[in-house]
Amino acid sequence: MGIFSAIKMALAALVVHKGRSVLTSLGIVIGTGAVIAMVSAAGGARQKLDERLDNVGKNLILVRAGARSTNGTLTDLKPITNEDANLLRRQFKSKLLGIAEVQATMRAASTRTRTCTTMVCGTSPEMRKVRAWVVRHGRFITEEDQKKQANICVLCSTVTEKLFPDVPNPVGQLVRIDNLQLRVVGTLEPKGRSPIGGDQDDQIFLPLDTLQKKIAGVESLSLILTSVTDMSRLDKTKDEMASVLREKRRVKLGQEDFDVSTVQEMASIAVIMSSTMHFLAIAIASISLVVGGIGIMNIMLVSVTERTREIGIRMAIGATPFDVLVQFLIEAVVLSLIGGSIGVTLGLGCAYSLSWLANWPIVIEYSMIGLAFGISASVGVFFGYYPAYKASQLDPIEALRYE
Fold it and tell me: pLDDT tens digits, residue range 254-280?
């Protein structure tokens, strides 16, 4: 008997019991669909995370006050200062794109008609180069602004929309923070959200000395930010910076009162969570596939019992045990592949729905679709072999007598 004839007979046998065939393949449908949907969604989540890392800058190194505790929080908050930043600037000038000092504080910013609470950041002119920011209108902070403690500011896109929703170019407009009136000298192109979900565009930048002396009244820094010229030296440069700061602050290894980290390290938790959910989904889907396989074995055993007389007739007119084995094995595989096909279709549909609802891209791994079909066929072979073997071993005479 040819393979196409066997497939045709298998489909005819399954059509006889349509409802039973659909319910039997349901486990395969759920398992395959879950794998395709979750793998595609997880791939999209990782791509979205990569995009956010690109927006922030994968080559960034951050120096913050405080030692990192076992649970990831920062304690022992001895301030970092301009002296720390200047030391790093001298020591690593050839390895870094620049050193940007940052002092940040939440404040209310207002115009004549509007008010909003936003992050106000005092920074140095090097910030633009370190973060690779693009100016939309006007200019960024300059060294002259820094020296004069100028009353100027640069707005990010979210703050611009809040304070000047009807002004295409707010350069030259006035913004008040506390009792200090600042003139807008520039706006920045949108940067998107950070890896942890914060809005990078909900910020106002002004010269560091202006913020420290006229608003915050402190000399310390919230953050020292820098970026390496060579991505391959990121971890080595981070370790060297930590060593220099330990020597300057006279602390031993493991007793640091500061923290040096990279953006990639900060995003590692999100990557771990994404990978964990990915493998958890595959594990759950695998259980569904096993349950579906058991259902196929059960139905095929019932089918062998129901068709005992039919098997006897086939053997009587010349079918060999191998022909019978192949016939029932093909039925199991076809049933499994039908379930896999429906599962792949539903999985892709769910993946596109998740993409639309969560507003992130999906990554369709065609190798995973091929693997899903391969696993479906394997489940059919594995769980269908025993019923097929049992059918092939029937005694033709006993089978013909079966009622």
Answer: 777 788 888 777 666 666 766 776 677
